[in-house]
Amino acid sequence: MTAARGGGEPVAGAYPVNVDRSALMHTYPEPPVTFVRGEGTILWDTDGRRYLDFLSGLAVTSLGHAHPVVAEALDRQARTLLHVSNLFGNVVAPQVAATIDRLIGGGAERAGGQVFFCNSGAEANECAFKLARKWAGPGRHVVLSAWESFHGRTLATLHATGQAAKHAPYVPLPEGFEHVDYDDLDAIDTVCDSSRVAAVIVEPIQGEAGVVMPSSDYLRGLRRLCTERGVLLIVDEVQTGLARTGRWFGFQHNGIEPDVVTMAKALGNGVPIGACWARTEVAAAFAPGDHATTFGGQPLATAAAKATLEVMEEVDAPGCAVRAGAKLRAGLEGIRGVRSVRGQGLLLGIELESAPAAAVFDASLERGLVVNPPRPDTIRMAPPLLVSDDEIEEALAIFADAMAAARQGVP
Ligand code: PLP
């Protein structure tokens, strides 16, 4: 298909409209728009309409769409070596693992951990759960997580996900997952019995729940409790990780050292890849044959991750998130109908006074701004970390207009 004009905007009418979607399982609602091309913060739909992407494919394309360095690395790797299986070595995966280990340590020095590569956030968490069980030994297999959390959709990660409505159709779920209130150290204290609990998993910010922040001492308290009880602390950085909140990882705002960290989304800037990092003493619980996945750490996905992390370091992606996040947040706080703005860096949840978030989402999309409503009263924004000041100003103007329209009940 030759719909892109010299790498620029797509030609209106060059894409099929009313695509027959009947062969796709109906796990997702009907999409309101079909996108065909992206560049930086901009997306174009099948009609050639331009949108500002302030969602980044759910916190994935943190360097923006079609980043030239990532595209070039993919092109080069695709022409060199796509896949060999984990029966053999490849030269890219170990380099990316070392970089992740260094970023977990804050960026300067290796933290002293090891990485297992997989293909998604759910798989990174599955790896963490299996590792925790293997590390803790027989009988100590329970993983504690928070109500309203989100950890994935496989059967085990679904059970770790603290949302009863999502569990209901799939019971019985794998045994060994229990939930407590988020941001409640007393609740964890009561159930965190090391004769049966292997690990606690926590999101530094609950993204899918609507960008919900815990109190500033929550993660530190969890770390203390887990250390006292001899239980692993797994931090799920699938959404918050890799610079989005203004640090390489969300836990770094709290000055703690987790035992296990999971990540995915932004790691490949759109190429599917996940990773589970663990302190070396914990990772040592896995022996060859204990865990595996065919595509994990394959050259193409890790080439994308290598390029993504190199660019992120070069541009100081955490600093970008801090600066752009402050500008976006200040602008949002001044918009009529916004009750408050939660979150950190460029992961923001905008709580609305009255207009339903679904109506604000519709009105924003109609005006060319991509956001999403994780809760009936909240809009989430997670633009690329390289978003420009002009793009932020344009998005704020569109959002203010969309809010006014939603208040008046017009599309
Ligand atoms: N953990 C968190 C915090 C997430 O936000 C998500 C996805 O939104 C997941 C895990 C699951 O990741 P994936 O959809 O890549 O399996």
Per CATH, what is the topology of the largest domain? Aspartate Aminotransferase, domain 2
CATH architecture of the largest domain: 3-Layer(aba) Sandwich
Hetero ligands: pyridoxal-5'-phosphate
Portion of residues in beta strands equals 15-25%
* Total helical elements: 13
Biggest sheet strand line-up = 4-10-9-8-7-5-6
Helix content: 25-40%
What does the main sheet amount to?
A: 7 strands, mixed
Query: What is the number of beta strands?
Result: 15
Radius of gyration: 21 Å
- Overall pLDDT confidence: 95
CATH evolutionary superfamily of the largest domain? Type I PLP-dependent aspartate aminotransferase-like (Major domain)
| N-to-C span | 33 Å
Count of the domains: 2
Structure write-up:
- The protein is α/β, with parallel strands linked by helices and 411 residues long.
- It folds into two domains: 35-61 and 317-408, Aspartate Aminotransferase, domain 1, CATH 3.90.1150.10; 71-315, Aspartate Aminotransferase, domain 2 (3-Layer(aba) Sandwich).
- It is 34% helix and 18% strand.
- It has a seven-stranded mixed β-sheet with strand order 4-10-9-8-7-5-6, sandwiched between helices. Strands 1-2-3-13 form a four-stranded mixed β-sheet. It has a four-stranded antiparallel β-sheet with strand order 11-12-15-14, with helices on one face.
- Strand 11 and strand 12 (347-352) form a beta hairpin.
- Helix 3 (92-104) packs parallel to helix 10 and helix 11 runs parallel beside helix 13.
- The longest helix is centred in the last third of the chain and has 19 residues, at 389-407.
- It starts with 34 loop residues before the first strand and ends with a helix.
- The model is unreliable at 1-6 (pLDDT under 50).
- It binds pyridoxal-5'-phosphate (PLP).
- Pyridoxal-5'-phosphate binds next to helix 4.
